[in-house]
């Protein structure tokens, strides 16, 4: 450190191996995230004695594939650690983004990095030079080879020239053959002319033959017409023949049917003749049966005659018996009627007996119940009122309507039951409760009055807060528009309330449009642009309500060099009311600062504070 300071060789950060003990990021689920590559300390090779230093530098840096996956991982884990993409974009702990193209002159130790890069480039160029030398040697070898090939091609060229002479002689010989063929072609043409003449003669003969052929075809058509007429006549004869053959077949069918009918008639005649023979034999048997039946009929007639004679004397007896039976029947009916009347009377008497026995039984039961009720009333008089029967009889009053009396009795019993047990201290308790009631009533009125006053006070405060918020919001919005234009070099921006009617609970939308861009969503902005928008809003708030002291912790980390300079220069507009302390690693911010402080550790475990007054240095330079 002292050497660097004495030689003014710049600044450097030293990491003692014995004291630096870094920790690795402990997120078990981080390895399963999409786009996660590894931790920074896992991608470098180092000796085990430098493990603490490597963990301190790279142990809490996550490497992701691209900015999209890095954004998702950072949001999920609450922006607790730094994430670097493979193409150099950075999401810092806390949510700021660093991206864009990498400046080769950013930082205080870039020259060393440039020297290392140039050394690597030199070694690469030397390697490429050796490779080019080897390629040149190979090309020289190929050139010598190609010269040998050209000599061989020259020899082949001489051979080709000799072949050309040989081909020319061959062409001459072919041309002679061609002239001979032309002469032969003339002879062939004369032969074709003679053939054409013969063709004309033959074509005339063909025309004659066609005329003769047309005449023959006309004769053939006439003969075909005659043949068609004869064929029609033949067809008509054929049809008649078919009709006659059909009639003949029908006649044959009718003859066969008649022969069948004749055979059937002959068969029926033979059957009738057989039945006639059988009927002759049956008629003899019937005559015998008729004679037997006639004999039986005669016997029956004699028997009927005898029975009639017997019945003629029995009619008188039957009439006398019928009269006696009628008289006995009338007597029987009279006796049945008398018996029925007696049975009815007996039934009525039995019913009356049963009714009387039931009435007697109910009367006895009523007597028992009345006696029990009387005994119960006597006992109840004594239990409830301590009255005997005679005492109750003396004070008793006549009851006109028992229903009204029972209703009144139930009302009195209900009132007595509601009174409960007799409380001897009820008067004193009433006085206490009444006093307590009056006190609580007064308290309640006071509370209601206070509530009304508080509600009115809250309404007034809410209205004042709305007015103050609206006024401050409009002023911040105006400052934001102005500061945004100054930082971005143009463009448009605006802060919009999502619900102007409810300003204390609504959200705030940020609409920005950098110069030359059309932005519909803040996520469409780059990380540096987002950080610069946030800085502009912060400066707008500070202008409205400046604080005497402000600490800025690397809020410009995501900005490029030009915007870092704009940010640092704009801080001077606010230093008249606010003192700023900025924690930064950016050169532009350091150049605009009035005083620089650095912390170094020359000895183990002993930190030392370094201070440099930049404003005095500037004055010395000016002098």
Structure description:
The chain has 623 residues and is α+β, with helices and mostly antiparallel strands. About 1% of the residues have low confidence. 69% of the residues lie in helices and 9% in strands. A hairpin with a 5-residue loop joins β4 and β5. The chain is flat, with a radius of gyration of 73 Å. The protein is built from 11 helices and 11 strands. The strands form 4 sheets. A 5-stranded mixed sheet has the order 1-2-3-4-5.
Average pLDDT, all residues? 77
* Biggest sheet descriptor: 5 strands, mixed
Give the topology string: H per helix, E per strand: HEHEHEEEHHHHEEHEHEHEEH
Record field, number of beta strands: 11
Short description, anyone?
The protein is an alpha+beta fold and 623 residues long.
Key structural traits:
623 residues; alpha+beta; five-stranded mixed β-sheet; two-stranded antiparallel sheet
Q: What's the layout of helices and strands?
A:
Layout: H1 2-6, E1 36-39, H2 51-58, E2 61-64, H3 67-76, E3 82-85, E4 90-91, E5 97-98, H4 110-385, H5 389-395, H6 402-419, H7 426-488, E6 492-497, E7 508-513, H8 527-544, E8 549-553, H9 561-571, E9 579-583, H10 587-592, E10 595-603, E11 606-613, H11 614-622
Parallel strand pairs: 2-3, 8-9
Antiparallel strand pairs: 1-2, 3-4, 4-5, 6-7, 10-11
């Amino acid at each position: 450190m002292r050497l660097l300071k004495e030689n003014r060789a710049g600044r450097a950060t030293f990491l003692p191996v014995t004291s630096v003990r870094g920790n690795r990021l402990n997120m078990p689920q981080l390895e399963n995230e999409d786009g996660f590559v590894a931790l920074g300390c896992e991608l470098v090779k180092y000796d085990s004695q430098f493990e603490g230093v490597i963990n301190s530098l790279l142990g809490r840096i996550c490497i992701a594939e691209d900015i999209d996956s890095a954004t998702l991982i950072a949001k999920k884990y609450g922006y607790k650690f730094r994430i670097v993409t493979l193409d150099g974009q950075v999401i810092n702990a806390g949510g700021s983004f660093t991206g864009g193209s990498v400046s080769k002159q950013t930082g205080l130790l870039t020259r060393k990095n440039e020297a290392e890069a140039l050394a690597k480039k030199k070694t690469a160029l030397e390697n490429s030079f050796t490779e080019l030398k080897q390629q040149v040697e190979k090309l020289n070898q190929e050139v010598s080879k190609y010269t040998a090939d050209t000599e061989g091609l020259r020899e082949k060229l001489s051979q080709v020239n000799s072949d050309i002479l040989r081909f020319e002689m061959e062409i001459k010989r072919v041309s002679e053959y061609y002239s001979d063929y032309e002469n032969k072609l003339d002879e062939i043409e004369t032969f074709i002319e003679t053939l054409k003449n013969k063709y004309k003669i033959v074509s005339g003969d063909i025309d004659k033959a066609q005329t003769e052929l047309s005449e023959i075809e006309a004769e053939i058509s006439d003969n075909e017409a005659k043949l068609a007429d004869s064929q029609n006549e033949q067809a008509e004869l054929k049809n008649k023949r078919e009709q006659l053959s059909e009639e003949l077949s029908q006649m044959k069918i009718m003859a066969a049917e008649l022969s069948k009918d004749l055979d059937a008639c002959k068969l029926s005649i033979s059957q009738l003749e057989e039945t006639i023979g059988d009927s002759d034999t049956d008629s003899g048997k019937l005559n015998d049966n008729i004679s037997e039946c006639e004999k039986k009929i005669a016997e029956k007639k004699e028997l009927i005659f005898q029975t009639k004679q017997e019945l003629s004397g029995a009619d008188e007896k039957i009439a006398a018996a019928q009269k006696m039976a009628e008289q006995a029947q009338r007597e029987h009916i009279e006796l049945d009627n008398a018996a029925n009347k007696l049975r009815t009377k007996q039934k009525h008497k039995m019913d009356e007996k049963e009714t009387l026995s039931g009435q007697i039984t109910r009367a006895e039961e009523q007597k028992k119940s009345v006696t029990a009720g009387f005994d119960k009333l006597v006992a109840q008089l004594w239990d409830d009122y301590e009255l005997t029967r005679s005492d109750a009889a003396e004070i008793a009053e006549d009851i006109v309507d028992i229903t009204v009396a029972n209703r009144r009795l139930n009302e009195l019993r209900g009132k007595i039951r509601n009174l409960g047990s007799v409380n001897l201290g009820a008067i004193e308790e009433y006085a206490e409760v009444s006093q307590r009631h009056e006190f609580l009533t007064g308290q309640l009125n006071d509370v209601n009055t206070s509530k009304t006053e508080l509600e009115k006070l809250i309404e007034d405060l809410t209205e004042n807060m709305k007015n103050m918020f609206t006024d401050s919001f409009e002023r911040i919005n105006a400052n934001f528009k102005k500061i945004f234009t100054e930082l971005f070099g143009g463009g448009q921006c605006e802060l919009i309330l999502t619900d102007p009617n409810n300003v204390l609970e609504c959200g705030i939308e940020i609409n920005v449009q950098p110069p030359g861009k059309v932005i519909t969503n803040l996520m469409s902005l780059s990380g540096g642009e987002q950080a610069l928008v946030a800085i502009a809003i912060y400066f707008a708030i500070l202008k409205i309500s400046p604080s005497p002291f402000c600490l800025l912790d690397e809020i410009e980390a995501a900005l490029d060099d030009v915007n870092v300079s704009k940010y640092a220069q704009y801080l001077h507009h606010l230093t008249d009311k606010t003192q700023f302390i900025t924690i930064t690693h950016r050169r532009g911010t350091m150049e605009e600062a009035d005083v620089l402080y650095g912390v170094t550790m020359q000895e183990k475990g002993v930190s030392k504070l370094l201070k440099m007054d930049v404003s005095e240095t500037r004055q010395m330079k000016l002098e």
